[in-house]
Amino acid sequence: MDDKTAIQSAQLRQLLSVSKVSLIASISLAAILAYMQSTVIPSAPLLVWCGLTVLASLLRIGLVFSPYSLPSGNAARTHLRWFRFGVIVAGAVWGSAGFLLFPDQHPRHVMFLIFVLAGMTAGGVISFSADLFSAVAFSLLLSLPITVRLFAEGDSVSLAMAAAVLLYLGFMILSMRRINRNVSENITLHLDADKREKEMRESEERYRLLLRHLPVGIFHYDTDLIITFCNDRCAVMLRNSIDCIVGLDLTHLKDRSILPSLFKALKGEMSHYEGQYEATFSDAKGWIYMTCAPVLDDSGHIVGGIAIVQDVTEHKSAEDKINSLAFYDPLTELPNRRLLLDRLQQALAASARSGREGALLFIDLDNFKSLNDTLGHDMGDLLLQQVAQRLTACVRQGDSVARLGGDEFVVMLEDLGEYDLKAAAQTETIGEKILATLAQPYQLGAHEYRCTPSIGATLFNGHQLTREELLKQADIAMYQAKKASRNTLRFFDQQMQDAVTARVALEEALRKAVERQQFRLLYQIQVDRSMRPLGAEALIRWQHPERGLMSPDQFITVAEETDLILPIGQWVMDTACAQLKAWQQDALTRNLVLAVNVSAKQFRQADFVARVQAAVQGHAIDPALLKLELTESMLLENIEDMIRTMNALKEIGVQFSLDDFGTGYSSLQYLKRLPLDQIKIDQSFVRDISSDSSDREIVSTIIAMAQNLYLGVIAEGVESEEQRQFLLGNGCEQFQGYLFGRPVPIEQFEAQLQRN
Fold first, then answer.
1. Could you give the CA distance from residue 306 to residue 294 in angstroms, rounded to a whole number?
2. Does Zinc-finger show up as a keyword for this record (predicted)?
């Protein structure tokens, strides 16, 4: 239907809707007019007019109340013509009243007739305003006859009335044009609105159909995270119905991994999520890719969000499969050479940042070719799979195991010690574990098979060597292992190999020393300004069965790295307390204070306070005679825990001295909080105070600081009277060093006391 036809259909509908009321009004006025004029008009013209009125009314009734009165399209155009014909007939009949019902001898009835016709003209303007032709035709046909009749009378009053009727008619026609224009504009606007509404409904329907049948899941949610719409694909993905999903509160999801993306959209930002998702009300689970965007109203305010969800499980599976083929060995599922090199590059970068060593272990199976030749390649593949499983079980989390090809494997160890010797020892430990594990029998189908590996190892620290150079070094070391006798581990550097061997031997010997109590305590005297003995420092020595008396520098580091320092430290504590108990029996020694060194690991034991208390109470000694010496390096971590432990021991009565002061990183902020009794000046400063002005300044500053903190101060390593005099002159009144006595066994120490 074109616009003109649509407008005509709308005009017709409006004309017909009003005509029902106007028809009733017209019939009523005709009856009133006939009744009023019946007394002054002869019967013949009155009956003629009434008959014409009835016929015109019947015609209009037929047009208005016809079952086809609201046609559309071309039929509307035809019906409009018939409607206009009915209007013309009605207008002509009413206009004939100007002649047939005009009582020229009765002015009052003439006025009534003019009044009725004027009212009908006004009513016609309103009723037929939708169609300008009908309104004008009705008004002209109704008004012109009475105007002519008035002009025919000829008297001045009639002429004036005729002129008034013409003016009234002109005013009505002008009003009709304006009213018709407004009505036409309203009809046009209404039709445009209907058209837009229809187009919008059709667009919305297409949009909904599109959303419902898109191959991706879509759901809408409001600002309260309540789902307001869900399409079919989304319901299928979640294995649920749309009715169950719509109205769901997203904050109650079992899998909340998507919530940050949904919240981000409500803040006006695009967001994405990719990962595993598990449905709340079904067993649906898969890998999804979701895009979220805000939904805005006409004012630009966020009223919710829309999420587009794609099930990419199959794509992800295919991607993982491709990735696996590219980076993993299909037989053992271990990383291949390509992935190993990538991880090695990352490990070199991490080592450069942290300063910690790493290692590569190149593993080759001994006599693998003979297995393939005798039992076949299937058994060889089965062996490789079992070797891969055992290697993976041998290493730590974060280390890597890779298969280069054939029977060659590589183990990459990261985050080892900061020093070569320690890192090599850790590598040796893991290598020995691999040797023992791979040497266990394998069950290859019905065959039990034994296989040994040859392992080459090399250390790395930062980017000193390239990835290829490191692999080459490990490969060379592996061939050294094969030449040596197979089923063994060799380091690329022979000196490193010798050092590792020596360290392992030292560790083993140290364990035996703990078991056999091969340790001794030596005692070095501590004196005051008058050279009177104040006490002693207990210094441990290892009485090695082959190497003789060993100082702590030769074994304490290994003891700390292997945690053997804990039983050793406990032995020192018990032995020192036992000595204090013995001294309490003699008036010469009962007031001597004994200083004992405590390691960081020992001090940080959860039950360290209880151990010290047990030793003090077990030997029934005065705790004030026991002085624990702590090093500055212990202040670098867990300072709050350290303060709590010291305070607990301080309550028992134990004293504290800060050993080697000036060589570490003491913070004055922490130093003033520590319940210390004494600071010990390190011997490295005391040694050169006679010749080095810097050392003299440092020592003077330490003494002054200790005095300001109300702490005692003792200098160790005093070997000359000149050193003692300088220290004494600066306020240090306690000393320890060769000037007063070397570390000696208890018998010599007590003899020295007797001589003094």
1. 6
2. no
Q: What is the pLDDT of residue 664?
A: 55
Domain boundary among 317, 348, 375: 317
The residue whose two tokens read 């898109």 is 214
Which range scores top for mean pLDDT: 21-25, 403-407, 480-484? Answer: 403-407
Structure tokens at 224: 């309260």
> How many domains is the chain built from?
4
CB atoms within 10 A of CB 362: 27
Domain shared by 743 and 708, yes or no: yes
Identify the pLDDT of residue 70.
Answer: 52
Rg (CA), the chain: 56
**CATH number of the domain that 723 lies in?**
3.20.20.450
User: pLDDT per residue over 228-253, tens digit each?
Assistant: 988 888 888 888 888 888 888 888 88
Does 207 reside within a domain?
no
Measured over the CA atoms of residue 183, residue 187, residue 190 and residue 196, the dihedral's sign is: negative
Taking the C-alpha atoms of residue 463 and residue 481, their distance in angstroms, rounded to an integer, is 26
Q: How many alpha carbons fall within 13 Å on the CB side of residue 384? A: 25
DSSP string, 179-217: HHHHHHHHHHHHHHHHHHHHHHHHHHHHHHHHHHH-SSE
Residue 205 lies in a domain: no
Find the CATH number of the domain harbouring 401.
3.30.70.270
293 and 365 in a common domain: no
Which positions ≥6 away from 7 have C-beta within 8 Å? Answer: 184, 187, 188, 191
pLDDT at 539: 96
Do 543 and 685 fall into the same domain?
yes
Q: Which long-range contacts (CB under 8 A, 24 or more apart) does 68-72 make?
A: 69/16, 70/12, 70/13, 70/16, 71/9, 71/12, 72/1, 72/5, 72/9
Strands 734-736, 712-716: pairing is parallel
Query: In the predicted model, what is the mean pLDDT of residues 173-190?
Result: 74
pLDDT tens-digit map of 343-392: 999 999 988 888 889 999 999 998 888 888 888 888 889 999 999 999 99
pTM of the model: 0.48
C-beta of residue 574 within 8 angstroms of C-beta of residue 519 = no
What H or E segment, with its residue span, contains residue 542? strand 533-544
Distance from C-alpha of 68 to C-alpha of 633, rounded to nearest angstrom: 107
Domain, as residue range, for 447: 329-507
Percentages (nearest 5) of helix, strand, coil residues in the chain: 60, 20, 25
Q: Choose among 317, 318, 347: nearest CA to 335.
A: 347
The reported pLDDT for the residue numbered 5 is 64
Q: What is the DSSP string of 308-331?
A: EEEE-HHHHHHHHHHHHHHHB-TT
Choose the weakest-confidence range: 219-233, 276-290, 400-414, 742-756: 276-290
Q: Report the pLDDT value the prediction gives residue 200, as an integer from 0 to 100.
A: 81
Structure-model confidence comparison of residues 298 and 283, the more confident one? 298
Structure tokens at 131: 């169609």
Residue 147 contacts residue 166 (beta carbons within 8 Å): yes
What's residue 167's pLDDT?
Answer: 86
| pLDDT tens digits for range 117-158 | 888 877 777 777 777 787 788 888 888 888 888 888 888 887
| Among 21, 38, 87, residue whose Cα is nearest residue 59 | 87
In a domain, 208, yes or no: no
Same domain as 309, residue 343: no
479, 507, 535 - which closes a domain: 507
Same domain for 261 and 357, yes or no, is no
Are 250 and 297 contained in the same domain? yes
Is residue 513 within 8 A of residue 542, CB to CB? The reply is yes
Q: Are residues 333 and 307 in the same domain?
A: no
Both 66 and 180 in one domain: the answer is yes
Rounded Cα distance, 409 and 467, in Å: 16
Q: What is the DSSP letter of 399?
A: B
Cα torsion angle, 511, 513, 516, 521, sign? negative
Among 213, 283, 277, which residue's Cα sits nearest to residue 242? 213
Is 7 part of a structural domain of the chain?
yes
